[in-house]
Amino acid sequence: MRIAITGGKGGTGKSTIATALAAELAKKHRTILVDADVECPDDHIILSTEREKIREVEIFLPEFDKQRCLKCGECSQICKENAIILIRDNFPFLVDKQCNGCGACLLACPNRAISEDAQTIGCIYLGKPVFDTGITENLILISGEIYVGLESTSPVVKATLDYAFELEDDYDFLLIDTAAGTHCNVSTALMDSDLALAVAEPTPFGKHDLDLILKLLELLKIQPVIILNKSDIGDIGLIKEIQSNYGIDIISKVPYTKTFLENYSKGIPITHKEISVIAQFLENRS
Amino acid sequence: MKTITVLSGKGGVGKSSITASLAVLLAENHKLITVDCDVDAPNLALALGVIEDNSQLIDRVRSEQNAILIKEHCSKCQECVEACKFQAISVDKEDFPVISDLLCIGCGACTLVCGDNALKLESVEIAGIRVGETGYGFPSVSAQLNIGKSGSGNVVNIVKIWASEIAEAINAEYMVIDSAAGIGCPVIASVRGSDYVVLVTEPTPAAFWDLKRAIDIVNHFNIHYGVIINKNDINSDFTEEMEEYFTVNEIPVLGEIPFDQKFVYALVNLKPAVIFEPEYTGKFLEILKEMIKNINFWDTI
Asked: Can you list the domains of chain A with their CATH numbers?
């Protein structure tokens, strides 16, 4: 079963809940935790886990054959990212970082002067979290990371998920921790999930961004449930309003306690009866 | 005009709340405009009390293009499925290609391989841009990406162009930009062209890790920056560790703010902290002075 942990707003507790839930599920079930926040992956830090680089993520990059190039400018014109610059009477000049690997230039070139090269944009790590209690055989962490300064986050998310899907048959639960926001990298992370846990905090920001992520989930046709985090600060009424608008359940209310903060800042996943409530909910669903 | 951009890497460390308070104080002596460049999940306008009812829609951004299938022309050759590097095209039961609006980035590769002229690009609306008066003597410009649309970096660029126009009209001395979480395209677009960057962080390993990645972005653009440590008392040992790192790496710390539930109540009441709890004015003024001092310092060199 694939479960996405998302929320829209940054800092609502997506990774806190995802890591705690992974640790809880791993007590009985084989669990994969995927950190799909490739811009700022944090799960390995929260779980104090050493990661090993498994593979690099590559996307298409055009390579120009100057023998064949007619300097016609078709490639530069077709490129929506403005990654190919053509100054008259010169060979096209490629700005690697702008290239999103769509390959349109290769198709547009009338003289087959462009061939397929690759550019590395990120990598995928595998880690085995170690807890005080020892057992970790049940849990693996897969995290994707985009190289700093590059913008093509979605292909890194996709490649990270694909790697997890390769291993999925040996596991009971696949948890996908998404980035903040609602743009393409989040859609890509959510796309193949069976269920989404929308983590929200009871503030106007939390309400506003929860509304956005629920709209995205509706579009993706993924069933959401709400996890109310930091449930005892702010105004719960804000989230209840959204909940009744969408007719979905709040399955758990995780309070804000100082021990959570301390654990978080020490790199230990939190434990709380409300986390077991979420785990049980998932067990009943699967 | 000076452009100051606030970022953090990690979300939820207090970017928008702190930006709101600093802007309110800065506005006491200077003309300014605030810009919410977190187009996925814009919160700065909210923090400043600007909601849909008291703001005006000034632009609808139509820039991205989506591929559209003209079924009558399609011979089901499926070349387009192969050509799409974003797996945006799948095949339905009758073997017709189906284009996912969510995955299509409008690159046009499919239209180039299609031998039947069955695919064309059509522009779509991807965002709305709003401006509103904050009630603290300055306007706030923000953008909201339409759900499921890509191109947030592009929208950031456009909201910044609008903000520059308005800034010029009101003779603004400062443009204060609140960026998104992360370090991806919307953040890169926010930082580009800024005069100074404020990085907000908190004493947790995750925030620190993300902060370093955000610093790499700022360094990439060669922009001067300073750091604010928010919630500095939630782990004093780690705060010290961070302070040491900042000292060793000669990164100026503009100030530190302790954790206080009153900040949450300020938020719930849609008021900047310095308005809701005036006792915080002193703290934020110190940070603001330090920031201006830093900006001016780099100006004189």
From this structure: 2-56+123-285 (3.40.50.300), 66-112 (3.30.70.20)
